From TrEMBL:
Family note: Belongs to the D-glutamate cyclase family.
Any one Gene Ontology BP term: glutamate metabolic process
Identification of the protein by name: D-glutamate cyclase, mitochondrial
Domain named D-glutamate cyclase-like C-terminal: residues: 330-640
Keywords, comma-separated and alphabetical: Lyase, Mitochondrion, Transit peptide
Amino acid sequence: MRTFLLTPQDGWMDGWMGKHREILCGPLKDRVMTFIHYLKSCAPSAVRSLIPQKKPNIRNMSSTAGGLRPASVVVLHRSLAPAFEKFCQANSGPLPLLGRSEPGKWTLPTLGTAPDARTGCPQFQKYEFGACTGSLASLEEYSEQLKDMVTFFLGCSFSLEGALEKVGLPRRDPAGHVGAYKTAVPCVHIAGFCCPLVVTMRPIPEDKLERLVQASCSTVGQPIHIGDPELLGIKDLSKPDYGDPAVCQPGDVPVFWPSRLTSLEAVSSCKTPLAFTSAPGCTVMTDLKDMESPANRLTPEGIPEVHLISQDPLHYSITSASAAQKIRELETIIAVDPGNRGIGHLFCKDELLRASLSLSHAHSVLITTGFPTHFKHEPPEETDGPPGAIALATFLQALEKGVSMVVDQRALSLFEKLVEEAVEQGVMKTQTPILTYQGGSAEAAQAFLCENRDPKSPRFDHLVAIERTGRAADGGYYNARKMNVKHLVDPIDDLFLAAQKIPGISSTGVGDGGNELGMGKVKEAVKRHIRNGDVIACDVEADFAVIAGVSNWGGYALACALYILNSCEVHECYLRKAVGPSRAPGEQNWTQALPSITKEEKMLGILVRHKVRSGVSGIVGMEVDGLPFHGTHTQIIQKLLDVTSVSV
């Protein structure tokens, strides 16, 4: 609940209290609190009658009488009104537009009997050519100029405090206004309005994080970022651009919401000769019912889940519970064990969910695959791995992310042909760069992963290994039969080891036997439960270990999970930081980018033409890991698509 800031000199307050001495006693602080409770019980018309009178020094108010809603004000020349309206509509997260007046009119029919915007707001700021040139208690002296100006009312709910109370969090706000910060996130540019998103921050104990997010989604709307402020371009939380800082205590996580103060940056950006805004923390009260916007309406499908996706930098992501449940179903589908290898002992719940959330935030992804298990044949690769890698790359391309692949130098020509033919046959839309790495040292790995060898400028922010041979504890690379194929393998593992020390790079390993790159995360279980595990277990970890009965299935499932996440309104809004229009799956051709029975049959056919063999049987034919494509693999693909709710 926001409070009134009343000074002891307020004779009006003393007069009011004189009429209610039977319920008042104690110091000024107690009298103020009693006054607030009185206002909460008042009828809207009674509260409204107080606001236009310039008697109480009311800076902030909310949670007062039912039906009243606070709004901030922007006053612009009529020539800018159409563009500013479009700007608000394009950036509705920080700028929820309640309505606008006609030039020279100060009440809005849609707002009931809103106070006169010239005198009802306790304080205004004046802008001239983009610069704030002063604060005003009234706009009366500008009556002539206001005849050609339009007033915009923006939703300005302070009900986050109610969400904090709901989850049992005491208020830790500073004595003044809650701090707000300019970010490096640009709002959508409309005409002359071009400005960064402004956010507010609350420090939230980690154990109350999800409950707070759920509570806030039903009131003020979901946060736009949870974690390290530098991911928003905020360098120092102790130095807000507006208001006073909130201090994070040990165990707190910074949580950020879009701020209406974005409107001040927008007004400044247009550099109009004259404009006015309500000052930070100041509002007018309207009769507009506190309508729930779609972003704030918490349905069973929209209940958010919060998941940690990175420790360095600290970063959480959110998605709806219904989307998360679908991804868990995908994880169950691919976790079957047709080869009876005992992979169920390696399973870690929600690894697919966290991996796909991390990939959804990534901008540039590096994928590796290739397991030369058939070392007596040419090529020695198997049919498990490349199809899953290409399926994931295809969907990442559809999400407009940068995608590259890194493979063994000796297999470069093979993979270039595989990708080229995949594009020719419509499996992929465009070719992806094929890279090689043979550095063999930590310094070389860092140079490969980062621009100008600078760990603060990574070229990729997520590495994915799908059925990629992984280095064991003794430095060898073993197939399931304990045969060392090190002579056929480049040290791509070094990239995953280097990524562990570079903030901002996450990694995922997909495997089906424990000897694949990334499976170091579950190596103890591999040693205990997988045949020959004490020798073959990969020693190199990935942040996320996705376990699948066949590794290709893991690649398919990651693509389907990304489709589900980016079709989820909760996650999609979080990704775009509540600025810009939402995007629909149909507009992006995502469905065509998903794996399908037809496309995967074509991909396997391409591998067969290049004499790539099945991993278990060594057969050159339409099978993977000794399992026939028609029947076993087609059933898994269809089940994944059924959960994803698409028909392709």
